[in-house]
Structure formats: C-alpha cells, structure tokens
Amino acid sequence: MTRTAIYSNIVLMHQNGVIVTGQKLVKRKEELMKKFEDIYPILKSMSLEELQYTNLASHLLICAKKFKTTDYITPAKSMKAFSADVGRYLGTLFELDAKAKDPILSSLVGNKNKGGMPGNGFYTQAEALGVKLPLDYHKDKWTEAKRNEAFKTYGAEDGADVIDGLIDAMSKLTKEQREVFLSMAQEVEEDLE
Predict the structure, then answer these.
(1) Cα separation, 11 vs 18, whole angstroms
(2) Nearest 10 degrees: CA dihedral of 138, 103, 41, 66?
(3) Distance between CA atoms of residues 167 and 24, nearest Å
(4) Quick check: 108 pLDDT over 80?
(5) From the centroid of its chain, how far is CA 69?
C-alpha cells in the first residue's frame, strides 16, 4: 500500500469518527479480552443444548451488528443441528425477546424459498405470543420493521468494525511499519485540526 493510499484511509477513518492511535487499538483489544475472560468459564460449563442456544443467539447478534439477515442453514451448520431443529431454538429465542420486550432477533432468519422472509413458524409463534399480525400481504413490511428494530438496537456503533479490523491489521505489521502508520495518523490529526 502506498503512502498516499494509507493517508487516504486514515483521513477516511478520521472523517467517520475513528481516530487511530496505537494506544486506543491496544486498549480496545485489552477490553475485548477482559470481557471474554469473564464469559469463557461460563461457556465451558454449559451443556450441549445451552451452547446451541448461545451459538444461535451469538450468530443472530452478529448478523444484527452487521445489519444482515441469515438463512436457516447457516446457523444449523454452526450448531451441528438439523434446519428443522433451528426453528425450535428460534421459537424459544422469540419468546425470550418478546417477554423482555426486546427486538425479535429471530426475525433476521429467512427462508430462501420465501424471498428471505421467515417461515410460517415465525408468524405462528408471534400469534401464540399475542402479537397482532397484519394481513398476509403486509407481513413482509411487519417483518422488515422487526428486523430494523434489531438493527437499530444491536447494530455496530459507527467505526466499531473498522477498529476491530485495525486491531487485526496492526498486529500483523512490523514495528517499523507500525511506527510509519502511527506517524501518518498523527499527521492526519494535525492536518484536520
């Protein structure tokens, strides 16, 4: 990557509210590791079914943070479960979200054969939980609204993915490359002030 390209990327990151310094990257990585250190023993003590629920919930939260939807097959493969079993897990997560009055993460799962919309079980679950659904031809709009609630609530903060990518990229640079990158970042900060 040329000096101009690196400089352009730093300016772009700065304009998006991400000011890059080595200390901030290291601090962010340390914060992430501390959080995971707290969670890891809990994960190791879970049963297979608890891990499958955790896996599915994690997958859906990642989708929400990246403003994406998913199909039934992707989490099924990750959970080592049949696609049909994923529906049961999704129903439980739907129930938990509805009870907590949280956005419905299971709305992010769609059926490829239905244009990316959830299967009938999703709407059956909604009705069983007392959700008043619109007429069939308005269900797509209702589902999109539910997905947007999840994106709005759980979507990554501006720059969060950029920072995570930079942590990874910075860890692969030599000491000299890091020094050049950080001095250029300092130049950008000074130029933009």
Answers:
(1) 9
(2) 70
(3) 9
(4) yes
(5) 10
